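User: I'm putting together notes for a lab meeting next week and I want to include a structural view of one of the chains we've been expressing. I don't have a solved structure, so I'd like a prediction I can at least talk through. The sequence is below, exactly as it appears in our construct file.
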Amino acid sequence: MDEKALPKDTVSESAKEIRLKGVTICPGIGIGHIRILDREIYISRKRITSDQVESEQQRYSEAVKTVSDHLYEHIKEAHAGSSLSASLILKNHEAMLTDGQFHDAVRSRISAEYKNAAWAIEVEAQQIITGLEASRSPYLKSRAEDIRDLVESIVDALSSRPETYKKVLPQRRESEVLISGNLFPSSVMEARRFRSVAFVTESAVLSSHAAILLKGFGIPAIGGVKGLRESAVDGDRVIVDAINSVVIIRPKPETVQEYITLKRELETPEALPLSPPIGSRTKDGVDVRLMANINNPDQIQLVLRNRLEGVGLFRTEFFVLETESFPTEKEQYDIYHRVFTAAGGRRVVIRTFDIGGDKEIVDFRYCTGQNPALGVRGVRRHFLHRPEELRAQLRAILRAAVGFPVGILLPMITTVDDIREVKRLFQNVKEELHARNDTFSADVQLGAMIEVPAAAISISDILAEVDFVNVGTNDLLQYFVAADRDNEAVLKYEDFESRAFLWLLQFIIERTAESGKEKDVTICGEIASHPQLVPLLLGLGYRSLSITPTAAQSVRDAIANTDLHASSSDRVVG
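Assistant: Thanks for the context. Below is the predicted structure for the 574-residue chain, given as C-alpha cells.
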C-alpha cells in the first residue's frame, strides 16, 4: 500500500501510539482507518418541559421523514459495493422506518418522561437491541447493527435541517479496518463486501464460522484483543499486524512507514506453480495427504499456489451467505465446473449447503427452536424444508463433474437413516438427469460429515453406507462437550487436546481401520491447520488432513518434523 493512498488522520499526529495484543485469526498486515461496528452513538440527553412535548414530537416526526426521503442516498453512500441487493437493504430499513408501533412508543416516551427526541429514541431502540443481542440466533444479533444505523440516521436528522441533512450522510472511507466486539458471519461478510483491509475483534471464539470465513477470504484479522473498544475511536488510523498479533492504534508516522515497507515486501506476487502438488511425509517416512478447505470458487487459486493435493472441503454455503441468495442450478453448474477445471485433476469434495445454526440468511430462516445449533441445519433443513434445493445442487454437481474426480459431502449427519434418505434422493436425481438426457458423472463419490457424537459412535455403520467421511472437529467438539463454539463464557471447555476428545478421535480412526477404510477418513476441522496439534492427529492414526490453504507450509513443516516411531497413539491418549 502506498502511504499517499491513506487518508489524512482525523486525530493529532502527536496522539499516543497504543499497542494491543491478541491472537492471529488470519495472517497479514492491514493499514487503514477504523470503522467501528456495533458502535455506541453519541446522544444529547435533555429534559424538556410539558409545553415543549408537542414540538419535540413534531421534530421527531420530521426527522423520520427526512431519513425516509434520503434513504436511498444513505444506502448508496453507506453500503456502496455491497453484494447484497439494494432492494434487500432498502427493504430492511424501510420496514423499520415504517414501524408505527416503534415511532408511537418513542413519542409516548417524549410525553410521559419529558425526554428530548434523541434521548427517547435511544432508550426505545436500546430495548430492542438488548433483546436482539440476548438472542441465541446470530442472525438476530447481527440485526442490532441495522437498528443502530437507523438510530444514528435519525439522531443526525434531529441535529440538522432537512436541506442540510444530506451533508451528514455517512461516507464510507477507503482502507477501512472493521472493529467489533463480536465475531458474527454477517460482520465478516460486511468486511468482504466493502473490501476492508483488516478485521479486529475482542471476541476470542476463534473456531467460529466467522473466523473460518476470515481465513478463507484472506482478510488479515486478530481476535481476543482486550481493551480494544476502550482504545479505538472511529476514524483513527490503525495498523493490524496479524503476523505478530498486534493492533497499533494511532501509530507514529515512522511506525506507519515501517509497516508500509513490510506490507509491500509481504505482498510481492508469487509465480503460480504449474508443477504437481507437493507430497507430505513424516520424518520416519509416513505419507500424509494434505488438502484444502475453501469457501468460494476463487480460493482454488490458493490450492494451486500452495501446491495442495486437492480440495477436501468446499463450504458452498458461504457463497450463499455472501450474496444472501441461492444460485440457480445453472449458476451452480458454472461455479462447480470452473472449480473442477481449475483444480487440474485434483480431487474436489463439495459439501452441500450447510445453512442453519449461526449461518442463517434473511428470507431463508425457519423455526429452529431455542438452540439453533441443535435445530434445523445441514441435511435436516433439506429434509424438512428444502428438498428441491438439495436436488438442484446435486444435479449441478453431477453435471459439472463429468471427467473430474469429485466427492459430495453431507453435513449434519446424525444416523444411518439420514444417509439412506439422501441416497434415495441421490438416485432419484440421477434418474431425473437421465430422463432429461443430461450428461452427468456416474463416478461421484458420496461422503458424510462426522460432526455429531452419535455419528462418531456409529462410524462403522456409516462407513458401510458411504465412500468416505470427513471429521469436522469444530462442531464435533462443541457437541461432545456441550459448549457453544460461539459462546466465550464456555470457551474453556473447547479444548482440542482434552483426553476425552482425543479418545473420541482415536475411536473414530480405530473403527475405520477395523473396516479397512482408514484411507477414506479426513480431518477437515480447524485442528488440522494448527501445526502444534498436527503431531497429535498423526499419532492417533490420521493420514489425511484438509486445512486452511495459507497454513500449508507450517503444517508441512509440522508433518516433516514428526517421528511416529518416537510416539504412539497409546501415549497420545493414554
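A couple of points you could mention at the meeting. The two ends are 51 Å apart (CA to CA). Residues 1-14, 80-86 have pLDDT under 50 and may be disordered.

User: Perfect, that's what I needed.
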